[in-house]
Q: What sequence folds into this?
């Protein structure tokens, strides 16, 4: 049976079927799946039959799969590549810790995973093991089409600009009480505001909730521009949503899309989601544990900074 691709929007997002991705794939099929992913930016796979091991194995067709950050030297899963994107603890009980839940609110802002890392993420593969009754959606926005539709005057304005990205800034935006001075002292990364998405050859905006400042601009002006670009990318014509049932998976390319978690009653319903993250193949070298070097479990507080491979940004940008 040939692979079937059903577009969701004319230029963005597609449901893909016709291949059993829980089993080893031949090279031609792997290449076809990669090409489909590069073309559509977000792909949705229903009833995949993936388990933890086959989830990680399938992820490897896209490249180097990152290790998730170890918490107190431990992982929730046997596969250390699985990022825990759930609202439950190791015993399956819903987490109702106010501080942890506040930090998690940052995931409901439009963002690109790991843009705060010097070595960026490309594909992310999010597999549903348990979902709330209404599906606990993820929302996605098309940053390639959004860039292409910008007025030429804005494209000219953005040419050559670079932005500062900070995990701790997005958590402050979500309500965690970091001060500006505290975020200044924490690690951050610098990336171009516009880049070429290598898989498709199309230009894309690279901004989101982690984006804190534009280098060379006053903070107020830079943040106004960042907010304007996020608002532009998340207009209805660029946005899709994915609702899940157990076994469903979404794959998105962080280099050409934004995403955010949808609202649901997270103290009432369990949502067990597990994600793998593929490293940007053009981002250079990083240690295998560079996420753990950045983050460590800090009890009842969100992840706290530790010595890392991230760039240190001057106080004035």
A:
């Amino acid at each position: 049976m040939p692979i079937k691709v059903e577009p969701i929007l004319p230029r963005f997002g597609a449901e893909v079927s016709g291949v059993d991705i829980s089993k080893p794939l031949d090279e031609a099929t792997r290449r076809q799946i990669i090409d489909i992913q590069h073309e559509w930016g977000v792909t949705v796979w229903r009833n995949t039959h993936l388990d933890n091991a086959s989830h990680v194995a399938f992820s490897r067709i896209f490249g180097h799969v990152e290790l998730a950050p170890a918490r107190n030297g431990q992982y929730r899963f046997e596969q250390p590549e699985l990022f825990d994107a759930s609202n439950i603890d190791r015993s399956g009980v819903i987490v109702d810790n106010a501080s942890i839940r506040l930090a998690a609110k940052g995931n409901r802002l439009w963002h690109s995973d790991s843009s705060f890392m010097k070595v960026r993420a490309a594909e992310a593969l999010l597999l549903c093991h348990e979902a709330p009754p209404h599906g606990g959606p993820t929302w996605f926005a098309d940053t390639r089409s959004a860039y292409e539709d910008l007025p030429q005057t804005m494209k000219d304005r953005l040419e050559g600009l670079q932005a500062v990205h900070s995990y701790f800034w997005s958590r402050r935006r979500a309500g965690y009480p970091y001060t500006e001075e505290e975020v200044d002292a924490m690690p951050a990364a610098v990336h171009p505001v516009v880049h070429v998405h290598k898989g498709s050859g199309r230009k894309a905006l690279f901004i989101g909730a982690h984006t804190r400042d534009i280098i060379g601009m006053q903070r107020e002006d830079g943040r106004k521009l960042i907010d304007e670009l996020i608002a532009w990318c998340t207009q209805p014509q660029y946005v899709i949503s994915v609702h899940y049932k157990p076994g469903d998976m979404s794959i998105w390319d962080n280099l050409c899309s934004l995403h955010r978690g949808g609202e649901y009653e997270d103290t009432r319903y369990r949502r067990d989601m597990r994600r793998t993250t593929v490293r940007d193949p053009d981002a250079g070298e990083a240690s295998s544990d560079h996420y753990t070097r950045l983050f460590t479990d800090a009890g009842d507080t969100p992840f706290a900074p530790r010595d890392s491979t991230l760039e240190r940004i001057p106080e004035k940008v």
About this structure: The domain at 4-145+237-305 is CATH 3.60.130.10 (Double-stranded beta-helix).
